[in-house]
Prior knowledge:
It is a single chain. The protein is 8% helix and 44% strand. It has one helix and 13 strands; from the N terminus they run H-E-E-E-E-E-E-E-E-E-E-E-E-E. The chain folds into two domains: 3-50, no CATH class; 55-178, Immunoglobulin-like. The protein has a five-stranded antiparallel beta sheet, with no helix packed on it. A four-stranded antiparallel beta sheet has the order 10-6-5-13, with no helix packed on it. A two-stranded antiparallel sheet has the order 1-2. The radius of gyration is 19 Å and the shape is elongated. By secondary structure, the protein is mainly beta.
Amino acid sequence: MSKGVLGAVFAALVLLGAGTTAGAVGETDGEAVGGTPGQTVGLVADEVVVGAAEADLAHHGHVSLWDGRVGVWLVTENHGPSDVVDATVRLAFSAPMAGGQELPPGCLWSSSRVVSCRTGALPDGGAAGELALDLRTAGQPQELTVDVSTAWRAGGVDRNSVNDRHRVLVLATGDPYVF
């Protein structure tokens, strides 16, 4: 890859983090970088995706902690404007979970502290069914945090990522902490 192309890719990646469209990405050596003006450009797994759909995903639910158990209930919604073929919600816990626990279909352990679950297709204005997890912690923490976030599987751009990223502090009271 030439020095000019590497510079263009770097510029595109930097600007993508700021939420630009392809027409505003920049140019190098007289060649435009990105797609056509007004076309959405997304960054998925460290690669530039031209023509990526724009959709606003939101995760809402609650988390409880009691006697070394964690309960998570959440619903994922798509506020549009485009359909989402598939996405993944990631739940990262500050405390490790006990090994050997089965998860619902479409979910997998990424580590002892991270669970990733497919949402399935989300039409514009639609929601995925409720995801419910009942997990055991490796010990009996008095508190933990849960980071809820979206990981795109089918590409896409979410210009309103505030409603799909949450950090929830959960005390071992059994009370539901809403996000």
